[in-house]
Design a protein that fits this description.
Layout lengths: L7 E2 L2 E3 L3 E3 L2 E11 L11 E11 L9 E5 L15 H6 L4 E5 L12 H4 L5 H8 L4 H15 L6 E6 L1 H12 L4 E7 L8 E2 L1 H22 L3 H14 L5 E2 L5 E2 L1 H4 L3 H4 L5 H10 L16 H11 L5 H6 L5 E2 L6 H8 L1 H4 L1 H6 L15 H4 L7 H9 L9 H5 L5 E6 L7 H8 L5 E6 L6 H4 L1 H13 L6
Parallel strand pairs: 6-7, 6-8, 8-9, 9-14, 14-15
Antiparallel strand pairs: 1-2, 2-4, 3-4, 4-5, 5-7, 10-13, 11-12
């Protein structure tokens, strides 16, 4: 039986209700196995945190449950400060569960400092192998059976990587699901490692996004040229970052991860470059990159807060095969377009990169340096278990509605369509009205549209 209002069971502690504007919230902590393949009593335990959210006055109403699966990998769930967006819409009819996926937020968070407790790269890899979608789904099932009355099924909403987790859920635990909603998160589900196909398609889309950016802000071509030349000519090929890392030309290109793929990203990137240089207030002083820009750069890439993203990103594409630094290899195939220094020497725009992790990050980013050897072992690891069951998906009985964004820089449209063709009964909403960040930007509209697709309010074709 689920614990409530401060009462507890051995593996579940629930707090009391508290308030945010127009919302009531309650915290839950679950003591779950690190390794579900072991007997429950013999596996080491970790804590998984979930926040229950309802509209004010609905605390005791028998509402159906909706579990939100966050994007990532390696990012915690949003922290509601008030009713709004998709959460407000969901709370009209659901009891929302915001689960910090294992290793993030309040779920035995894996930060640079906490991971430093693990003394060898091999031991860290053996620990991190339990933090992919398969075990996130195990955690969700663990929680569902303790929260939902009668251990009944619940609806899940998966955004981006959360959609990957939702397809894993459909593959291995469909009896726990009433409905599945996915936004920008249909994964490639082929055997082996699908990362090469993802990055080949990704680099093609990246070129398109860069072209659109520079068409919007053509004045930035010369600004970025100047920055790249300055970095390349600096001692050591870059300038020191506040954290102790180094900003190099290829590191500068990482700004495309946040700047090219979401709404307002173009504008934010442009305004960032507006303040790249310190003003020269003393005649003869040398020009230098501003502290404002260097600090903002580190906030944009944010590997200090979410190192799991860098460590596990390519593994989300692996089933029984290694990634072998897929993004790095595929970039090499496109280096004639993405070589920043050569572009800056000529007249070509410097192209930014996207959702890609490269081995040199573990040299240039201070927070990642201690995990360089573990990252290499993860890239070489072959024995990743299956994340999807194509036969089960082709026989799917759970109603699924998915928003597929036509110009999604992170989850490729063509690959998403291929996956959808293998999930029985899925209904797609294909739109270019929103980018990958549609759920954040227009959450109530996006969620309302998906729910309408499942309840008959939208046409069946």
């Amino acid at each position: 039986m689920a614990a409530v209002d401060g009462n507890s069971t051995a593996d579940h502690i629930a707090g009391g209700w508290y308030s945010a504007p127009d919302l009531r919230l309650r915290d839950h902590r679950f003591n779950v196995p690190l390794n579900y393949s072991l007997d429950h009593s013999s596996s080491p335990k970790i804590s998984v945190f979930a926040r229950e959210v309802v509209a004010v006055g609905k605390e005791e109403q028998p509402l159906p449950y909706l579990l939100y699966l966050q994007g990532g990998p390696g990012f915690e769930c949003p922290r509601p400060t008030e009713a709004g967006g998709w959460i407000s819409r969901a709370c009209e009819e659901y009891r929302v569960i915001l689960m910090d996926q294992r290793g993030t937020g309040l779920s035995t968070s894996l930060t640079p400092s906490s991971m430093s407790q693990v003394k060898s790269a091999e031991d860290l890899v053996n620990y991190l192998r339990h933090f992919r979608a398969d075990n996130i789904v195990h955690d969700a099932e663990f929680i569902r059976k303790r929260l939902v009355p009668g251990a009944g099924p619940w609806t899940i909403l998966g955004q981006s990587f959360g959609g990957f987790c939702a397809v894993t859920y459909l593959s291995f635990a469909p009896k726990g699901l009433k409905h599945v909603l996915i936004t920008g998160g249909l994964p490639p589900i082929g055997k082996g490692c699908t990362a090469d196909a993802v990055y080949r398609a990704g680099f093609e889309q990246l070129v398109h996004q860069n072209e659109k950016y520079y068409k919007r802000f053509p004045q930035d071509i010369e600004i970025v040229h100047d920055v790249v030349n300055y970095l390349a000519e600096s001692e050591g090929g870059g300038v020191p970052l506040p954290s102790g890392g180094i900003l190099t030309p290829r590191g500068l290109q990482l700004l495309g991860l946040s700047g090219l793929g979401s709404s307002t990203g173009f504008e934010r990137l442009h305004y960032l470059f507006e303040r790249v240089w310190d003003p020269v207030i003393v005649q003869g002083a040398k020009r230098r990159i501003s502290d404002y820009f260097l600090n903002a750069y580190e906030r944009w890439i944010a590997f200090d807060a979410n190192p799991l993203y860098a460590l596990l990103h390519e593994s989300i594409y692996c089933q029984g095969a290694s990634s072998l630094w897929s993004a790095h290899r595929i970039r090499a195939e496109n280096e004639n377009k993405f070589d920043a220094i050569e572009a800056a020497k000529g007249s070509r725009p410097v192209l930014f990169t996207g959702e890609m992790i490269f081995p040199w990050l573990f040299d240039e980013v201070h927070a990642l340096r201690p995990f360089k050897d573990a990252a290499q072992l993860l890239a070489e690891k072959k024995d990743w278990p299956s994340l999807y069951d194509i036969a089960a998906l082709e026989d799917n009985k759970v109603p699924v509605a998915a928003a597929v964004y036509y110009e999604d820089m992170y989850v490729n449209f063509k690959l998403s369509k291929e996956t959808a063709s293998q999930i029985a009964g899925i209904r797609l909403w294909i739109t270019n009205e929103y980018m990958h960040s549609g759920l954040r930007d227009a959450g109530s509209k996006v969620l309302d549209h998906l729910l309408a697709m499942l309840n008959g309010k939208k046409p069946l074709f």
